[in-house]
Design a protein that fits this description.
single chain; mainly alpha; about 95% helix; Ribulose-1,5-bisphosphate carboxylase large subunit
C-alpha cells in the first residue's frame, strides 16, 4: 500500500495545482462568453 498511497498523494497535489491554476482562465473565458 506504500506506493499506492504515495501515488494518490502525488496526484492529489497535481489535481489541486491544476484546479487552482486553471480556475482564473475558466473565469476569464466565462466572462468573455457573456
Amino acid at each position: 500500500c506504500g506506493p499506492l498511497k504515495a501515488a494518490l498523494d502525488l496526484w492529489k497535489d497535481i489535481t489541486f495545482e491544476y484546479t487552482s491554476t486553471d480556475t482564473p482562465d475558466f473565469v476569464e473565458v466565462a466572462t468573455e462568453s457573456k
